[in-house]
Design a protein that fits this description.
By secondary structure, the protein is mostly helical. It contains four helices and three strands. Helix 1 links the parallel strand 1 and strand 2.
């Protein structure tokens, strides 16, 4: 594969934020080892719950940890997709997450647009990649 998308971690709520972020980092390291040609996109964890709560805070902490850890790894990008889900009053709309965890069609559309754009950008070969492919 040229691009691999990883979106895991929100169901690991029984683990600490450090453990969840460490697990995601371990997955990316494994992908790098087994698929060294692939570029990796890690989707950040979404907020969860209708109103602010400890799980939402934990997911935000996981994302903070990933923002500092993933740039140290080769060929990986973190895509933060939680913008726009939490309203100014701290709530999440059931129009985006019908149960305040799982996305609706509209919620997926908010994520898929930036994900699609990033995938298309990563699939465009750089001049160096083209020369290497022809060699």
């Amino acid at each position: 594969p040229q691009v691999i998308v990883v979106w895991v971690g929100t169901n690991n709520h029984e683990h600490s934020a450090e453990e969840v972020a460490g697990g995601i980092e371990a997955i990316v390291r494994l992908i790098n080892a087994q698929q060294p040609q692939a570029k990796v996109i890690v989707l950040g964890l979404l907020p969860r719950g209708e109103k602010p709560n400890p799980l939402r805070q934990k997911n935000a902490r996981v994302n903070q940890l990933l923002k500092s850890a993933l740039p140290k790894l080769p060929r990986v990008q973190l895509l933060d997709v939680d913008a726009g889900f939490v309203h100014s009053d701290g709530t999440i709309s059931y129009h985006d997450m019908f149960d305040f965890l799982h996305l609706t069609g509209g919620g997926y559309a908010k994520i898929c647009k930036p994900l699609h754009e990033l995938i298309m950008q990563l699939l465009e070969e750089t001049p160096e990649e083209k020369r290497a492919a022809l060699a």
